[in-house]
Structures are given as C-alpha cells and as structure tokens.
User: Fold this.
Amino acid sequence: MTAEGIGARVLRKEDKRFLTGNGRYTDDMTMPRMGYAAFVRSTHAHARITSINTDEAMKMPGVDAVLNGHQLVADGIGNIICGWMIHSKDGSPMNMGAYRALESEIVRYVGQAIAVVVADTPQQARDAADAVVVEYEELPVVVDSSMH
Amino acid sequence: MTTVSMTVNGKQISGEVEDRTLLSTFLRENQGLTGTHVGCDTSQCGACLVHMDGKAVKSCSMLAVQASGSAVTTIEGISQNGQLHIMQKAFKENHGLQCGFCTPGMIMSAIDMVNRLGTDLDEKTIRHELEGNICRCTGYHNIVKAIKAAADEMAEVLEAAE
Ligand code: FES
Ligand code: FES
Assistant:
C-alpha cells in the first residue's frame, strides 16, 4: 500500500535546476566590478614568520589590494572568535586559542593563510599571490605518531 | 593568448584565452556554462566532468587549448527539447541529489558508464565506476539506485527500438 499524505513519498521541487546545470552557486555569480581573492599560504607546518614582502605583488597588473595580518592588527580587527563558548566545571571560561584570519607571527600548519590578494581576475590574483615573498624561521614539528 | 574553437553542446564556438586556461574555466567563464562545477580543481572530485568526443574527461585537468577542435558535451547539453535525459529523470525520481553540486559530474559520469559498459550494470560495478566522483552530501546510495534505474530504463528503450 502506498501512503498518502503523511508518510507519502514526495519528489523535491528544486531538483530540476540542479539536474540541468542551472543551479546558482556562489562561484557561478558575477557582479559588476567584482574582485577576486587569492591567498598566500604557509609552506611550513610550524615556523616563525620573519618577513612578508608584498612590494612586487602590489605592482602586478589588476591588483587592487594585498593585505596581511599586520594590517588586521593595525586596524583593530580581532581574532576569529569561537561561536561555541563552553565554561569549565568551575565556571571559568574555556581557554580560547588566538586564531587570526591572517597569521603574521607563527604559522602552525601548512596552508595557514598569511596574506590575501584582491585583483580584477582570478588569474591576476593568483599570480600576485605567488609574488608575495614570505620568509620563515622553521620551528620544530611532530612528524611521528610517537615521540622518541 | 590563443584562439580555441570547439563544438559545445552542438554549437560551434570559439574564444580567445590565455594559454594556461583550463577547459573548466573556458566553459564556465568564457561560455557562461556554469553547470560544470569546480569542486577541487585537482582531479579528485569529478564535479567538472564533461564529455569530449564521447569520452568522459575532468575538465579541470585539461587545458582549453587541448580541447580545441573537439566536440564537448556538458550537463546543459543532455536534455532535449526541455525533456530531461533518462539519467536526469532517474536522479530526480530516486532522490539522487541533495545540494546538487556534484550532480552534473555524477550524471555525466553515469551516462559515460552506460556508454562504455552497456545497460547491464550491477551495484558493485556502479560503485566501482563512481570512484572518481565525490558527493560531499554523501548520498551515494541513492545515486547508485538512480544509475541502476536509468540503465534499466535505457535497456527497455533499446529493446523497444529493436
Ligand atoms: S574540479 Fe575537476 S575533479 Fe574536482
Ligand atoms: S548532492 Fe551535494 S555534493 Fe552531492
């Protein structure tokens, strides 16, 4: 017996556009004068950043801005906040790590964002991001599941 | 810059691109065919899958210039006269999609599967063949069901035509 009303199989109404390639995802949209961002990311698992040089990147075609963590700090933009604060049993607030949107002091994983480039096309943004020179002083890393 | 020309969904087109332009970028940005999705651009997810001269290719992993002179079919080109392709219909009827992001690649991959292996597909084969397509919503079970249902229906259509 096929159910009617409650319990009945219903087909989704939104499927057709997805099945025909007519969905509209963020990456499918273009806006007038839209800029594109590309990130400069850490190449080390653990390192102290000794310098971030954006001079060359700034001069590249189509580049609108090259920003890093120093500017975030200078503009008083705080760290990424944890949306789920849990208090310890004794009522004290949990210890929250200091996560910056763009790290300018110590990177803690490969791929951590250090700088962002905004340009007129994705390709220009990528090229300029590649032209940002970050210098590191490597710090110890754990590469084993056991410590010797 | 290089001029590339190809047939896309039956239409002859051409465009000026930087040499490094990927086929996926060319389809999405130059041709406005945003149904071909880029989930990873490193050949892992299959969201960008299209057919080139009848063969499935990951369009994020080849250059537009490499596709010059070929015939490309994208998700936008498989329904005819507003009628969904049997595979598209089966995905709808079997709830083979949630957010729909992987769906174009899944469908193009599934059609290629039937083209290569015929309509007699069992679950194990379908699962194995879907190795190159990732669904982040993880609705694999219904995707497999949809492909099986479509393959069975295609077999009936073929039989009726004989
Ligand atoms: S975008 Fe091509 S395989 Fe993921
Ligand atoms: S339906 Fe969402 S990724 Fe597959």
